[in-house]
Design brief:
- This protein is an alpha+beta fold.
- It folds into five domains: 2-36 and 354-466, Beta-Lactamase (2-Layer Sandwich), CATH 3.30.450.20; 48-252; 261-353; 477-553, Helix Hairpins (Orthogonal Bundle); 561-719, Histidine kinase-like ATPase, C-terminal domain (Heat Shock Protein 90, 2-Layer Sandwich).
- The protein has helices at residues 2-30, 48-73, 77-81, 91-109, 114-140, 146-154, 169-187, 190-215, 231-248, 263-290, 296-353, 372-378, 382-385, 390-396, 405-421, 468-518, 522-553, 565-582, 603-617, 648-651, 672-682, 707-719; strands at residues 357-361, 367-370, 430-436, 442-454, 457-466, 561-564, 586-589, 596-599, 623-631, 634-641, 686-691, 697-704.
- Strands 2-1-5-4-3 form a five-stranded antiparallel β-sheet.
Length: 720
Amino acid sequence: MDGFKYTKVYTKYTYGITLILVRFKITRQYGSSSTPITKPSNYFMPEDNFNRIALVCSAIVAVLGILVITGWETDMHNLASLGSNSIPQAPASALAFILLGGTWFFYLHKPSRRLARMSVLATVLFILLAALLNLIRFFTGVNAIIEEFLISRILSLDPGIYGADPMSPVTAISFLLSCAAMMLLLTHVRRATGLSIGFASIVILVNLVVLLGYSYGTPLLYGGEIRPVSLPTGISFVFLTVGLIATAGPGHFPLRLFVSPSIRVLLLRYFLLVILIFVLAHAVIYNLFSQLIINAALRTALAVLVSVAVNSIVVLQLSQLISGTIERDKAERKLVEKALLDSEEKFRSIVEQSGDGIVLTDEQGIVIEWNRAEEQIIGIKRAEAVGRPIWDVQFQMSPLKKKTPEAYEKLKANMLELIMTGRSQWLNQLWENDIQRPDGTRRSVQVLIFLVKTSKGWKVGSISRDITERKQTEEAIKRYARELEESNRMKELFIDIMHHDLINPLTVASGYIQLLQEEQMYSKKNAYLERIEKSLVRAHELIENATMFSKIKSLESIDFETIDLKEVIKRVVESFALLASRSGMVIQNNITYSMLVSGNKMIEDVFANLISNAVKYAPEGKRIIVDSMDAGEFWRIRVLDFGEGIRDVDKSRIFDRFLRAEKNGVKGSGLGLAIAERIVELHKGRIWVEDNPGCGAVFVVEIPKNVEDVKNKVVQFMGS
């Protein structure tokens, strides 16, 4: 059987080679999000750069806060306001930015350190509390003296230097949203990250308006007379929230709209850049011209003209960049299309030349590939299979007895579940299935199912191999092995017979011949000759039984004809009457009615064996009874003797020659009962032994009735 093992190893090896080639070509042709051939960056710059941007932004926030504190400590108020014409930043706000920028920089640098996370969390909670208290003070007038505490106790500054007024509500709300965004980013949950970016985006937009107000000298935009926002505060919030958005990464809104390498996103980036440059240029030039003593309308016109000139130069440069990018994109697209066409041709060649059947579906389970080998194996043409759901094709090639509506629905549900989940117990395993081709022929097929991951879901593929001839060969080898084993058992049986049963009577005959040679009395010679005759008859019976057993053991069926068991048993009883009388026994036949069966003439040997055994091995009982009864669909015949009987331990093995332990322990030894059992089995009947209630044994035989006879009796009964 080692050949089967090597065949399976070779099969798995060849399937593996085919699967690797098919997976490679399918990935090249259709693409895969999990195992691409070359994975270009999805963004216009490496993802690591976004983390560096976040680090730089958090550092800028901390440095701006330090500059403001330094300005207050050294009475250099221009540092606190970043200019003589803008409002200075409050020391408490500067301290908050130092803490936020510093702890976030530490966290980005060592994200796995628990201390970094705890420091960010503590800072955020503290600033959230301060911002909430300032909002309460602004709306209710209740002063929690939080800013006075920070300035006088921590920074050691005199609150009278800048008035110690509460921070702007815009600043407080910006702190609340920024701190909430930082807390959400610490969770690393995708939905929480999206909400965090939303908060940060609001803060950016609000503070860009503040910066726009300072650029154009419009106090209304940064708070006016109510509670203005300082210029350093607006700049710090912009850098802080830009760093938070960069921390979230390019996979989230709004960075996702600006970092793709596509032409659409490229144009959007450059458009926003042009707008930004125009606004900044116009603001700077307008402020420069505002210092000149000229007409306001002329000043505005000159600012616009210079801004347009500057932006024209920028647009000219950007247009060259965009044009070059578009041309490169076209060239790369042509190269990719050519590579795909070449890959498709190679894939088609491999699939069509493969000796294995290859099938592939799309993400909805529709067949998109069906090669020539699959046509030959299944018997369904490519044109008939492509475009159909795979479960329809599978149902079409199912054996006729399995084509039920329930089977179709189950097959469809299993395939849809496989496509949606990408999981199945049949994946990547060799399994065998019987199919029925359209022409009605049955084939055995070995199938390997695999999946291909794409951006849209799962494609299902299969590799099929026709193993009909191999299965037939395996069955033939197994059948031959069974026959060979049975032949060996028959050989052992024959040797056993020769050694135990056949030698004994011949030895007895030889011994008596020697006695005849020595004995002078004629009166004893007849007795010796009689015993020699019995021994030779016994040897002849053993040889005949062995020959018959070897023949009927290999039979699977026999020819039947209508036989009356009453007449069969009557003949057997008459043939053994003389032998029984010599042993002082009487055979009593109590069967009085006809018993028709579909049988073979060899059924007579069954009853001959049972009656013969009763005569030979139970003579002390003086009589043998043969009777019968109607057992429904069977005729039940019993042979009763009144001898010593059979031990319970021997009842289960007297019919099996091979399992008998001690020959002398079982009366009726030899092959007779094994032959009787085999003949009864060929007649679809049964044979067993029971205890005789008085003494002795009862052998019971059940043979099915003749069907026509049963029908006639039913008709007669209904007529009466």
